[in-house]
Design goal:
Strand content: 15-25%
Distance between the termini: 49 Å
Largest sheet: 10 strands, mixed
Number of helices: 11
CATH architecture of the largest domain: 3-Layer(aba) Sandwich
CATH superfamily of the largest domain: Periplasmic binding protein-like II
C-alpha cells in the first residue's frame, strides 16, 4: 500500500504543481454530491475548486487559488441527499449536499425519519440554491396533471435520493396509495433514456435548473413539464415551511413551457466534529470575492449561490466554524 507521503506526491504531481511538497501539509476533504447528470455534481466540483489550495499553488489574487492552504477537496458522485446525510453522520464523508427538508427530518428524527435516531451530529455550512421538483413526460402522453399518473410507469429515482422522498410526498398529497402507479427507480440518463424509449411514462427529478439530464433529453425528444400546483400541492407548502411555491421558467429548457411547481433549498452540510478552524476557513473561501467568477461561469445554479442567501431556509444548526464566519461578515448578530 502506498504511504501517505507517496499518495500526496502523486496528487501533487498530477495537478501539475512544482516545488517541494510535504505530506503533512495536505488535508483531503470530500463533498458528497449526486448523480453526474444532475446539478449537485457540477456544483460540488465548483465548490471543491473554490476551497482547495494544494501546496505550491500561486497566491490568491495572483492567478492562484483562494482556497484553504493545503486543502484538496473532491466532489464525490453519490445517490443523493439521503445517502449524503448518512455518510456525513457516520464519518464516511467530510461533507455533502442535501435538500433542507431531508436534513431537517434526519436531524430531528421526524417526518420520513420518524422512529430513527436523530442525526444530531449534522451541521450546516451554507444554504446554496433553490431546487425544483420536475415532473417530466413526453408530449402526447396524456399526462397533464399529477392525477394523470395513476396506473402509469413512473420513475421516482433511486431509494436513498431526495427525489424519491419528495416524489412520494407529492403522490401522497394527491391521494395516491401503494400500487396506484407502476413504480420504477431509475436515475439520471437511465431514467431519461427509458422515457425517450417509451419504457417509462413519466419521471421525477429534484434539481436546480437547468439540470443536464433534462437539457440533453430536451435536445432529442419532445418533452413537457407537468404542473405541480393547486390545492393538493398546497397541502405540502402549508404543512412544511421548507417547501415553497415556485416556477421552472420557459428559459430553463429549450422549447419547454414554464411550469409551476414546488421548490426546496439545497444546502451544504458537515459533521459537528469537523475541525472548527477548517470549516471557518473553507466557508470564508466559499464566499471569497474571487470565487464569484468561478460560480457565475461554472453552472447556471452557481449564479444563484449568493452570500446574502447563505442562511436562507436553514433547517439544521450551523457548524461553529461557519457560524464564526457569518458573524464576522455581519449576516449574524
Amino acid at each position: 500500500m502506498k504511504s501517505l507521503r507517496a499518495m500526496a506526491f502523486a496528487v501533487y504531481t498530477a495537478i501539475g504543481l512544482s516545488g517541494p511538497v510535504h505530506a503533512q501539509d495536505i488535508n483531503f476533504f470530500t463533498i458528497g454530491t449526486g448523480g453526474v447528470s444532475f446539478t449537485y455534481y457540477p456544483v460540488g466540483g465548483m465548490i471543491a475548486n473554490a476551497i482547495s489550495k494544494p501546496p505550491g499553488s500561486r497566491a490568491c489574487g495572483q492567478g492562484g487559488s483562494c482556497g484553504v492552504d493545503g486543502l484538496i477537496a473532491s466532489a464525490v458522485s453519490t445517490r443523493g441527499s439521503v445517502d449524503n446525510i448518512a455518510a456525513i453522520v457516520s464519518g464516511l464523508r467530510n461533507s455533502g449536499f442535501a435538500q433542507s427538508d431531508l436534513a431537517y427530518w434526519a436531524y430531528t428524527g421526524t417526518g420520513v425519519d420518524a422512529g430513527q435516531p436523530p442525526a444530531t451530529d449534522l451541521r450546516t455550512i451554507a444554504s446554496l440554491f433553490e431546487e425544483h421538483i420536475h415532473l417530466v413526460t413526453l408530449q402526447g402522453s396524456g399526462i397533464n396533471t399529477v392525477a394523470d399518473l395513476r396506473g402509469k410507469r413512473v420513475s421516482l429515482d433511486e431509494r436513498g435520493s431526495g427525489t424519491y422522498v419528495d416524489a412520494n410526498l407529492i403522490l401522497e398529497a394527491h391521494g395516491f396509495g401503494s400500487g396506484d402507479i407502476v413504480e420504477r427507480n431509475l436515475k439520471g440518463t437511465d431514467a431519461t433514456q427509458a422515457l425517450r424509449d417509451g419504457i417509462l411514462d413519466a419521471l421525477f427529478i429534484v434539481a436546480g435548473y437547468p439540470t443536464r439530464a433534462l437539457v440533453d433529453l430536451a435536445g432529442v425528444a419532445d418533452i413537457k413539464l407537468v404542473p405541480i400546483d393547486g390545492a393538493d400541492a398546497a397541502k405540502l407548502t402549508d404543512k412544511f415551511t421548507f417547501f415553497s411555491n415556485s416556477t421552472i421558467p420557459a428559459t430553463a429548457y429549450k422549447g419547454i413551457k414554464a411550469a409551476p411547481t414546488i421548490a426546496v433549498r439545497a444546502q451544504w452540510y458537515t459533521n459537528v466534529n469537523e475541525d472548527d478552524e477548517l470549516i471557518y476557513k473553507l466557508t470564508k473561501a466559499l464566499w471569497n470575492a474571487e470565487t464569484r467568477q468561478l460560480m457565475d461561469e461554472g453552472h447556471a445554479a452557481g449564479r444563484t449561490i449568493r452570500l446574502e442567501t447563505a442562511l436562507d431556509g436553514l433547517s439544521v444548526p450551523l457548524h461553529l466554524g461557519a457560524e464564526r464566519f457569518y458573524r464576522e461578515s455581519g449576516l449574524l448578530e
